[in-house]
Amino acid sequence: MKRTIFFISVIYVLFSSCHGNRYYSTDVCLLSDKQETGDSIILQTVNEMSSFTRGLLCVDNYLILVQQNRDSIFKIIDSRNDSVVSCFGKVGHSRGEFINIPQKVYCIRGKDGHPLICVQEIMRTKIIDLTKSIECNKCFVKEIIKEDKDFLFYYTYYSPNSSCFNYKTISYEDARDNVYIKPLFYNDGESPKEWDVFPNIITSEFSN
Amino acid sequence: MNVYMAPNGKYVVGIQNFVDAMTIFNLDENKTIGIINPDSYTLEDIESEFNENNISEKLRWYNTTGCVTDQCFIVLKDGRFYRDVVNEDSETGNSVVCKYDWNGKLLSSYVLNKRATYIAYCDMTDKLYVIGSSNKLYSCNLK
To answer: I need a labelling partner for A81 at 20 to 30 A (CA). Which of A3, A10, B58, B91 fits?
Structure first.
């Protein structure tokens, strides 16, 4: 009986040990289900875009398209009827404008529950009040947060509870192929935390 | 890697492109959950088996992009060899999307009839929006 329990324990440790992997380490590790072929879906055309789309986001009932259009960066569509409700955002240097077509865009909900669009630019993040921007058909920047981090290698995500999640991609000191970098993930704010998801960088011939 | 934060700021997911793995960061509980495809090669395999001569034959583009809501995240999967992805810009072909809850449980998966480049999901209307390679906007209802 003791021997059986011992072997079961050994097998359990082996199966649960993937979160102790040398190169990938998480608190819990799940093996994804086999990809059963799901239902087939036929997509319906909503719109043919006049500008090239650089990003697609949803928050509440709004679909936000980030367009390669210097005079109309954000196109907002109401998902209840697929109608365009607003277009705003220009390339420029004023408060409601952007240095270039944004690449790092995400949505959060403010403390009052209103949807916000966050745009990370060089050394700053602009926070757009989506509801007001739709009402005015003009980019209404609610807040500008200055960054002290390098824009090129950091993704910074501000959350509604005022903390800040950071994803550091690569630095000049670590100029290796994209496949082999060791990303860093950490949280700023009242209770800072770093997650060592990739504890080691692999050493292949590509890293030389 | 593509990283997305849920609008409520409670969860972040990092979706790896070249290894079929996703990492959920539960910021409230300070917990990470890894979801790994057991059929994918691993970082250890890359270290021991990949080299300049065979990388184009072996490297796969597993996950293209993703999108998030407060309740779930969706991953646009591919799985082709990377050499085939970079030379292909047609919408012809299928895409697979997999919907997960923030505990890492696969809720559903669907096969789309076009090759997609961006996705977004509205959980209020259950609509998935897709941008195809030809820059058209499509939608469908996830049942």
So the answer is: B91
